[in-house]
Amino acid sequence: MTTSLIAEGTTAHASLAPRHDFPLLAEQPALRYLDSAATSQKPQVVLDALTGFYATANANPHRGAYALSAAATDAYHAARATIARFLGAADPETLVFTRGTTEAMNLVANAWGAAHVQAGDEIVVTALEHHANFIPWQQLAKRTGATFRIVELTADQRIDLDHLASLLSSRTRVVAITHVSNAVGAITPVHEVVRLVRAHTNALLVLDGAQGAPHLPVAFDTLGVDFYAFSGHKMLGPMGIGGVIGTRARWAECQPWQFGGDMIEWVHDQDSTWNVLPYRFEAGTPNAADAVGLAAGVQYLAALDMAAVRAHELALLDYAHARLADVEGLHIFGPPPAERSGVLSFALADVHPHDLATILDEHGVCIRAGHHCAQPLMRRLGVSATARASLYVYTDARDIDALVDALVHARRIFGATS
Amino acid sequence: MSDLQELYQSVILDHNRSPRNFGPLDGATGTADGKNPLCGDQVSVAVRLEGDRLDAVRFTGSGCAISKASASLMTAAVQGKTREEVESLFHRFHALVTGTLPPAEMTKEQLGQLIVFSGVSRYPIRVKCASLAWHTLRAALADDATTSAMPVTTE
Ligand SMILES: Cc1ncc(COP(=O)(O)O)c(C=O)c1O
Asked: Is the dihedral of CA A326, A328, A333, A334 positive or negative?
């Protein structure tokens, strides 16, 4: 592993993870990939783990009474244990694999929500949420006749904790909140939220960790939330694998939501009984190969050390803020870097984000322009879209410099006088 | 001229900054709303037909430079044309931005000011920005004021 300049408290020029560990970045040295909040690049060790599974252990887990199937099963179980440990869950069986955060939220909303939410109850989300942690709850409220409440934001797009407190009552059945906003990067003060929710309600507390798990140290067992959902593809893993960790007590309150192979204990003609946690909530052939790939990804992150990942992003954010101060007409959304993950969501005066993305692409700079699956937030910002550059372990100062140069070019094209 | 310079020609930047025929239309005979859900572009087109002839077209909405300039230049290009002429101009424009127009037809005579959109075909992601207003115009022309405006999305 390379030593980071940041760790020594100097300027943020180097990346934390060597670029050559990532085949796509190594292959395209001029590419400035600043869209890791959408999906991260994958290190060689993850690709090796994937091909390794298929080349040496491929069989259907849990099915065959032969050694190869046992090897597949072992690999799948080992991956679960590795990922659970990475996220601070001592009991690997409280981690249920899903395709990602979207499926995880739909799981919780159906498996827990359908049996426990009724007319007159209240579901609380925030105006920061990604659609994946908004619509499942909105639709659950609609189906059950529960009231859907939205916590508003401060002027710099942090969750307004006073407003949250004012919405909590004995009627509150679910509180679903993002750990880190994908659209503006705001980090939720989880301990404060847990304290408020536990003090005023018996509600289910669900955290959307899609942007938390990749960028911050997460210790599920001491976090105090009931469920924590994440997406593997945003944390160096392959697409198609993610999961949700829950407390045993809350899992015991859930009903199966998808039915089929693997999740059953016994199937009678007229009824069936269910397998134990976690299999009860993993119907069908599991995505063992991608789980193995993600396990390699989180081992890579653990070796970097998540505290160092956070420090690296923070140092780069500070560097970016200093450099972007030279770009006239730039407005950065969200709280100051200390309360923000490695996300720069911005508007450039007179240049639409979509035009920006095209011009930046010409410089090899990949950013996201759009509503970031957060239309409720865009409405509150009064914009239809923002431009978003997002950082990760392989990002370095050259990426930021290229972003700044491209933004200056965009202003020139659009006839700014500066 | 670089691809980027060809995409953002001065005429396009000018129409982006000061769009023509922007605002509500009195006595509209048809209206339609167009949306590009991917990037949030929105445009509403209102038309006033006199017989078969387009007496007036105006638009409102928000979006990127390409979508705004396209709406603005479109309103200027179709003013006073018959439905059939609008339809044939649409097909020529669509062929231009998708890069399927024969080079012989890529002339100012055939396309008028719309020729400034020749750079779009190099950017397949931006084709829908350029064509949103046109799809919406066609929906507005099909709207006979007895039905409510149809929502339009691009291909
Ligand atoms: C905060 C947040 N929540 C949920 C999601 C949905 O994740 P996925 O698309 O991997 O299911 C994303 C990513 O797009 C996200 O950033």
From this structure: positive
